[in-house]
Amino acid sequence: MANTIGVWIAATLTLFIFSFLYRDNPFYKFAEHLYVGVSAAYWLIYVWSFTLYPLVFKPILTGSQGIILALIPFILGLMMLTRLIPKISWISRWPMAFTVGLGAGLGIIGALQGTLFPQLKATIIPLWVPGSIYETVNNLIIIVGVLTTIFYFFFSIEHKGTPGKIARTGIIFIMISFGASFGYTVMARVSLLIGRIGFLLSDWLRII
Which residues span the membrane (predicted)? Predict the structure, then answer.
């Protein structure tokens, strides 16, 4: 019985979302607001259960050895809340600056180690691979694509004549990359659509 009710609720909300394809309407807005509200409530409970309570409040309340480390984010969090009080809202700038700086530092390190260095390593390849014309052509395309794309963003030289042709070649590789990324995104969304339609036809209507 509970499973049947859950299927009907899921199917109804799915149809409410699909109704936006016709036009904006109260049913779609209801489903949208419900989704946002449930997501916000879920993440609030998740953050409290797995982050705030075990890592911040529990060490403070129990007086464990990690109380000093727990007090730091607790104080920073209280300082952020001062933004709600206009007279002392300037205090919130300190934890915000700390958070932004920490995020930027971690982001740079992550980008270097997870993206830039592996990409550089992947482009250090031989131009000629004995016994494999396919790998030779593939490596040549990669090298030409990388060099021409980098040259496109080199604005110290006017893109006319030979430099212009090189830059236009770089644009072609950039457009191919954007097209592949967009195609992958569309494919992922279509997969989600197929999944919802399959749910309606199999679990709800039991046609297939």
Answer: 6-22, 34-55, 67-85, 97-117, 137-157, 169-194
